Fold this protein.
Amino acid sequence: MTDQNSAIKFYSGEQIPVELHKVRIVQKLFLKPIEERKAAMEEAGFNTFLLSTKDVFLDMLTDSGTNAMSDNQVSSMLQADDAYAGSQSFYRMERALRDVFGKHYVLPAHQGRAAENIVSQAFIKKGDVIPMNYHFTTTKEHMELNGGKVLEIFADDALEIKSSKLFKGNIDIEKLKAVFKEYGKERVAFVRMEASTNLIGGQPFSMQNMRDVKKVCDENETMMVLDASLIGENAYFIKQREEEFKNANIKDILLEMCSYADLVYFSSRKVSSTRGGGIVTNSKDLYMKMRDLLVLYEGFLTYGGMSVREIEAMAVGINETCDETVISQSPSFIAYAVNQLDAAGIPVITPPGALGCHVDAKGFLPHVPQAEYPAGALASALFIISGIRGMERGTISSVRDENGDDILADVELLRLAFPRRVFTLSQTMFVVDRVKWLYDNRELIGGLEWVEEPPLLRFFMGRLKAKTDWPEKLLAKFKKDFGESL
Ligand code: F0G
């Protein structure tokens, strides 16, 4: 039963994302009173990363390591073979990865950024450039630590919030050719394509674009690296949006995507709903350049920093990523939320993508200057009024330049992640409802300023505070409208 997705047509004509799974293990949630939510947000320095889950109602921070696991995944964990070297669990995972990605050599790593570390150390030297559709935070840091420079060569209109462009994650081929002309192929370490491009709103690239990028790479004898953390969802969008693939099965789409890449790496926290990561390739030469680094940083070749239980679950999970009912679930719920918010005139990234619903904080809070972090303010405000934890993906997630000034982010987003098969439709309706209320009361929300700003990846651990008493005003209005209701 692979040719199915979870948006089902109702008698009313509406397309409703129906859960094609049933809930068998549950975790109790708490929706605390708004006064406690506000206190928790203040204690967390207006940084949703620093909240404790005991205070969170719907945890939409990320889909990383938080997708629901299947019954088959959980049961596979019981047969794990604990061994430092030669574990049977590893061989089962290796077989599964070879089958799904079509690559022979498999290097396990404890998570995606560990794979980025190995790939960056092995293939980037000082002065190199790495063209890509868009950066991811940890990817960029690893590349820069190794002396590389990230070049983002997306199409000019890829960052438009409201758009009908189906493949905003595409690399602009003319810009790619221009990179080779300007720097020469010797300085291009590799070309990186990120599936379901995270920081521009989970936006996919097309298969045609991969073919075009591959052609330019071949002409310049340069390798193509694929970040496959969200490849399942990208494959689903290819099937939905690219005419040639409308009758293709997901497994074939995945195999074709990977066939264009010389090296594929991934966070399995996303792609296979487990906690780990890895690198795969068909080139013995590339494998040998990474192998010893892997042992140094991650652990022996047959576990790479992962527990054998997670390795077993990964072998099962990567196969489930070929099941359309699994990989369509998050995009269908995201589409539901995005379409509802869009219809209410709330600025959200369209078309709906993978990973989450992305609210445009600049459009939502035009009165909050970018230097006062509108996406961070919006994330804090939403938590206070709902217990929903989203993630800032804007200037707080950016860095400062050499003069110490903020590099203002291209887009200021509040990301509300939809981990696979975690939230129900009524919870999704609650999200839509509270974002609508917040939009109607948006003028109450003000900006943020730093209290404690770490120099590296400041968004993870940094602390901020409200510039005015806007949280109190928001609380008062919430109480006026909702009374004692949570
Ligand atoms: N590549 C992409 C495209 C990612 O989205 C992530 C993580 C990584 C690499 C790093 O993987 O977390 O396993 O080390 N994204 C998470 C997120 C953190 O919330 O979007 P990791």
User: Anything to note?
Assistant: The chain has two domains: 7-63+326-482, 71-322. The radius of gyration is 22 Å. The pocket of F0G is lined by residues 62, 64, 111-113, 136, 138-139, 194, 198, 227, 229, 267, 269, 277 (CB under 6 Å). The chain has 19 helices and 16 strands.
